[in-house]
Amino acid sequence: MGIHDLPSSSTAPAFLRLSLFAFFLTMFLTVEHALAATTRHYKFDIKLQKVTRLCHTKSMVTVNGQFPGPRIVAREGDRVVIKVVNHVKNNISIHWHGIRQLQTGWADGPGYVTQCPIQTGQSYVYNFTIVGQRGTLFWHAHVSWLRSTVYGPIVILPKLGVPYPFTKPHKEVPIIFGEWWNADPEAVIAQALQTGGGPNASDAYTINGFPGPLYNCSAKDTFKLKVKPGKTYLLRLINAALNDELFFSIANHTLQVVEADAVYVKPFATDILLIAPGQTTNVLLRTKPKFPNATFFMTARPYVTGLATFDNSTLAGILEYQLPQSHSTLSMKKLPLFKPLLPALNDTSSATKFTTNLRSLASAQFPANVPQKIDKRFFFTIGLGTTPCDKNNNQTCQGPNGTMFAASVNNISFVTPNTALLQAHYFGKSHEVYTPDFPTSPIHAFNYTGTPPNNTMVSNGTKLVVLPYNTSVELVMQDTSILGAESHPLHLHGFNFFVVGQGFGNFDPNNDPKNFNLVDPVERNTVGVPSGGWVAIRFLADNPGVWFMHCHLEIHTSWGLKMAWVVLDGKLPNQKLLPPPADLPKC
Ligand SMILES: *[C@@H]1O[C@H](CO)[C@@H](O)[C@H](O)[C@H]1NC(C)=O
Ligand SMILES: *[C@@H]1O[C@H](CO)[C@@H](O)[C@H](O)[C@H]1NC(C)=O
Ligand SMILES: *[C@@H]1O[C@H](CO)[C@@H](O)[C@H](O)[C@H]1NC(C)=O
Ligand SMILES: *[C@@H]1O[C@H](CO)[C@@H](O)[C@H](O)[C@H]1NC(C)=O
Ligand SMILES: *[C@@H]1O[C@H](CO)[C@@H](O)[C@H](O)[C@H]1NC(C)=O
Ligand SMILES: *[C@@H]1O[C@H](CO)[C@@H](O)[C@H](O)[C@H]1NC(C)=O
Ligand SMILES: *[C@@H]1O[C@H](CO)[C@@H](O)[C@H](O)[C@H]1NC(C)=O
Ligand SMILES: *[C@@H]1O[C@H](CO)[C@@H](O)[C@H](O)[C@H]1NC(C)=O
Ligand SMILES: *[C@@H]1O[C@H](CO)[C@@H](O)[C@H](O)[C@H]1NC(C)=O
Ligand SMILES: *[C@@H]1O[C@H](CO)[C@@H](O)[C@H](O)[C@H]1NC(C)=O
Ligand SMILES: *[C@@H]1O[C@H](CO)[C@@H](O)[C@H](O)[C@H]1NC(C)=O
Ligand SMILES: *[C@@H]1O[C@H](CO)[C@@H](O)[C@H](O)[C@H]1NC(C)=O
Ligand SMILES: [Cu+2]
Which residues constitute the signal peptide according to the record (predicted)? Predict the structure, then answer.
């Protein structure tokens, strides 16, 4: 029954939880209007839990002691209310990654952006409605590197009675990729910020929390996907890893991509998937018609373009067909095991082939509302850089040439304030916290993907862009070759955007826009800025609030590759940010 186990809910009738769910779904099609959206309640207790992987046991921060964390299941249109209680010494907040949060910016979650963190012994109720989204998203901690262990799936089912625009799956299975350090990830990032060098690479990648048999001391920690022949499975793939985009493949099986970041796409078949941190992708797995007398590895390993040292290991799970009765004496262990062939770690052409295949479904029922007329254009450089090393502050200067690594947008490395930006904005105290002068284009133009400038030092500040309500925005993000070109998965909070164009080299404002796809571009919340290239996105700023935008490679966020957009209230009541909840944490 899997995913159709809906959680306890204040108004959902008990029958929703029965396995005859599908039957009732059909039966109640005609009275759909009578079954209004419901409220789903969850409680997240943030607490320590001992977990062992690769023969290393550590006490880590979790939700309800679970790793990965519990799944949130709701329908499009439902309200979700999650009470988060912090029982650990770390400050924490939770981000509902990809949820639009229309008018409810207070529930978005990034620490010091929309809220102060929830401190030890305190709690906060996240309260939001899921509007116009269906598919897979995920939730994760949004303070420091706590998301390495604090994450879980968000499953958004279509409204009751609305079918999927693809084969109805026999079963649905969330598959969440993560990254495991034997050490405490908080110590890893603290050390990196003190030395100024790159952080220690992770020790393993995980699939639903398990590294799988390709690692030492890990065979028993293997995720198995048990399937029946001749069925269609919906795999809800989520990349919750910190610092690595991943290639994924299942031996001898082709996958049909149907959805990305909770938006339907035009279905296409592929053997290889690319999924960046912050991205989600739904695929259909059609199992072989008969018991294949074999088992199959599903594996993932990184797509890496930067110069830094990285975890080059491979996670594996097993796709296992249920034995037919006639084979009951056969042992699974004796069956041949097939392995998929993954692209090389630096295979940019495989990566590009996958991403350029993604197109919005753009049907009458699920249109692609691409902004056609643009009010404001922005051009942001995205890349690495350096800052001076301060030995008096215990920094040990192990970054490039005795400096400290930094990262920036338009050469500004974002300085996180010690109070929340959204509160400063809402209560008219912004002048004390940030300036509204984030540059619309680089202050100094250079050959962004050519020979890098000699001076790699970045500037810093807490600068934001302020947009009137309903501004239609076009943003070109240009990778730079400073300290190495690299693919950066940029994530925008509060909006989906359309990926209207991408290319390699420097963006050409005269010729490239002619090739923009304004008909059926993919709509999502996280997009990879190609290594040594650019990407153009469009979105309508129809959600008042303060919205974080950052690289979803966590180390780049730590180094300052982040900024925020302020979207002002509109005139109508439903165009205004709601007042803050009474329990909003204080700094
Ligand atoms: C959630 O928000 C709605 C709308 O503002 C409100 O009616 C409801 O009381 C809130 N629920 C909780 C538990 O705070
Ligand atoms: C990072 O790796 C170095 C070299 O292996 C090791 O000495 C150091 O303790 C590690 N740091 C953390 C925080 O685990
Ligand atoms: C799996 O693929 C390999 C390589 O293409 C092929 O040799 C093998 O016969 C396939 N096995 C099954 C059970 O499909
Ligand atoms: C991974 O990196 C290690 C250390 O740099 C190297 O020895 C090993 O060959 C690499 N493995 C792969 C699969 O690239
Ligand atoms: C299945 O494969 C095993 C191992 O290769 C072999 O021993 C067995 O005879 C096969 N059974 C069938 C029904 O093909
Ligand atoms: C990818 O890596 C291989 C082996 O490390 C190297 O030979 C090749 O030149 C690299 N390709 C690109 C496009 O960087
Ligand atoms: C630097 O490190 C030393 C030893 O760990 C510590 O005693 C001192 O307080 C630190 N200084 C600063 C400015 O953090
Ligand atoms: C580091 O210094 C060397 C020698 O001065 C220079 O060639 C190189 O470009 C510098 N690298 C960076 C990243 O600044
Ligand atoms: C930028 O650098 C690239 C790579 O070195 C070079 O091919 C290109 O001609 C340069 N463009 C300009 C405008 O100088
Ligand atoms: C960068 O440094 C090199 C070598 O020191 C020098 O020849 C060159 O003129 C410098 N370029 C600029 C733009 O300063
Ligand atoms: C920001 O830049 C100023 C001036 O260069 C410098 O003194 C300060 O340390 C920097 N702050 C951060 C957080 O990097
Ligand atoms: C937790 O957050 C509060 C409020 O911003 C801050 O004062 C405190 O230093 C933080 N504690 C830790 C351990 O980071
Ligand atoms: Cu990045």
Answer: 1-36
